[in-house]
Design a protein that fits this description.
Radius of gyration: 40 Å
Number of helices: 11
Helix content: 40-55%
Number of strands: 8
Distance between the termini: 102 Å
Order of helices and strands: HHHEEHEHHHEEEHHEEHH
């Protein structure tokens, strides 16, 4: 039987001795690697018992323990911050950084409502027109406009028509709005003079206000036309009395219903889901002592598991006049239970410090403080 390698009692860490080399350049990791190896060996029975591990075995377990701690914390942070990081660039590493909640997600969602309401959003509006013919009420916009000009499905958002200018009606002596007939002459102080050849010294804003009043009245109370629009088929009421151009605004359905809209135009490198949130392995030097203690315990469980695998290579070994059973299976069973316990403990602590949990704790503290202050007697003023 080949001679198994036994721990010699000391080690000297150097860069390149870990499987992945993730922390070899970290001075704190390099300094703690040999301490970790010595501590684990002693916890496994050295020097009273032989420990069938090399220094590289301890270093590998140490590196894996740090990456496991980093993965557990980062997984929690991703879950806690994904809502606020979605849509952000993936080039910004957020490891060890505070993620501040913003209104970005709400604003982005509100833009979609803005598109439907025609008051904003990221979807462009396009303009188009149709020739309206006297006596013709119904118009198929898809046939008359879309097929020839757009080539894809559209949705009409606004319908316009070219009404007579309000200024023309304002000065029309035969109109019943604005200054009509006698009201117009008297209103301008012309008396018997014709308004066509006379001028008046009045503030310009007075005319503008009256014109705006006419336009507002027309748009709200007595539009010249009404219409129905179903499946891009337009029906006008009443029948047009003359040929004219009807204008409308529309959106392309493919742009409006595009689920891949991003605020970073021209770039696909944005956070989309759990898989590309920019959390990297933590830097060992920035992990606090509480985290390092978890790393040491988890690393010990890993070394115990590895030692159990080594000792399980042979179920028994011969000794003079008998044989002895090795404890490989026991070590592996203990290591598995210890790892599960440490992972569960860490996850529970992280959940207790989630944004939601902290907000609830802050709420409870505020309510308790309010109740406590309500029992403080008011001062009594005399005189």
């Amino acid at each position: 039987m080949a001679q198994e390698v036994i721990w010699q009692g000391s080690s000297s860490f150097a860069s390149g001795q870990t499987p992945w080399g993730l922390y070899d350049s970290d001075s704190s990791f390099s300094s703690d690697a040999d301490k970790f190896a010595d501590w684990c060996a002693r916890r496994l029975g050295y020097p009273i018992m032989s420990v069938e591990l090399q220094s590289g075995s301890f270093y590998a377990c140490f590196e894996e323990s740090v990456t496991e701690y980093s993965a557990q914390v980062n997984q929690f942070n991703i879950k806690d911050n994904l809502l606020h990081l979605t849509g952000q660039t993936t080039g910004s590493n957020v490891t060890h950084k505070r993620v501040t909640p913003t209104m970005g997600r709400s604003v982005f969602l509100s833009k979609q409502y803005g598109t439907e309401a025609g008051v904003g959003g990221d979807v462009p509006y396009y303009s188009g027109s149709l020739s309206i013919h006297s006596g013709s009420q119904t118009y198929d916009i898809d046939k008359l406009f879309t097929d020839a000009n757009v080539g894809e499905a559209i949705e009409i958002k606004r319908i316009y028509y070219e009404a007579n200018p309000a200024m023309q009606r304002f000065f029309d002596p035969y109109a019943t709005t604005g200054y009509g007939t006698i009201n117009m002459v008297e209103g301008f102080g012309f008396g018997n003079y014709s308004p066509a050849v006379s001028f008046t010294l009045m503030p310009l804003f007075d005319d503008l206000l009256r014109v705006q009043a006419i336009e507002l009245n027309d748009s709200i109370r007595k539009s010249a036309y009404s219409f129905t629009l179903q499946n891009n088929k337009l029906r006008l009421f009443p029948d047009p009395e003359e040929n004219q151009t009807l204008w409308f605004e529309y959106v392309k359905v493919s742009e409006r219903d595009n689920p891949l809209i991003t605020e970073y135009s021209g770039s696909a490198d944005v956070v989309s889901d759990y898989s590309n949130v920019p959390y990297d392995n933590m830097e060992y030097q920035f992990i606090n002592d509480v985290g390092k203690q978890w790393i040491r315990k988890y690393g010990l469980a890993l070394t115990k598991e590895l030692l159990g695998i080594v000792r399980s290579k042979y179920g028994t070994i011969p000794i003079p006049n008998s044989e002895t059973t090795l404890d490989g299976d026991t070590l592996r069973s203990e290591a598995s239970a210890e790892k599960d316990s440490l992972i569960t403990q860490l996850r529970e602590i992280l959940e207790q410090t989630s944004r939601k949990a902290l907000l609830e704790a802050d709420k409870d503290e505020s309510e308790f403080l309010q109740e406590k202050l309500s029992k403080v007697p008011y001062p009594i003023y005399i005189g």
